[in-house]
Amino acid sequence: MATKSSDVRPKVTLACTECKERNYITKKNRRNDPDRLELKKYCRRCRRHTPHRETR
User: Which of 22, 35, 37, 40 could bond 54 through an S-S bridge, CB–CB 3.0 to 4.6 Å?
Assistant: First the structure.
């Protein structure tokens, strides 16, 4: 069985780039997205759509 550190689809946390609140947990494919993931999602604290970046 594979370990979590070498998993192809690990769980990543997305944090708002403006207020730094961690709002979303998602999975990503390491083969397709080796860099940090950045998606435009809704932030409840900012009350608007902002870029959310993967945190470690």
Answer: 37
Cα 45 to Cα 22: distance, rounded to the nearest angstrom: 10
Pick from 4, 7, 15: which is nearest to 38 by CA? 15
Q: In terms of C-beta density within 10 A (0-12 exposed, 13-18 middle, 19 or more buried), how is residue 31 classed?
A: exposed
Domains located in the chain, CATH noted: 11-55 (2.20.28.120)
Rounded to whole angstroms, how far apart are CA atoms 13 and 4? 15
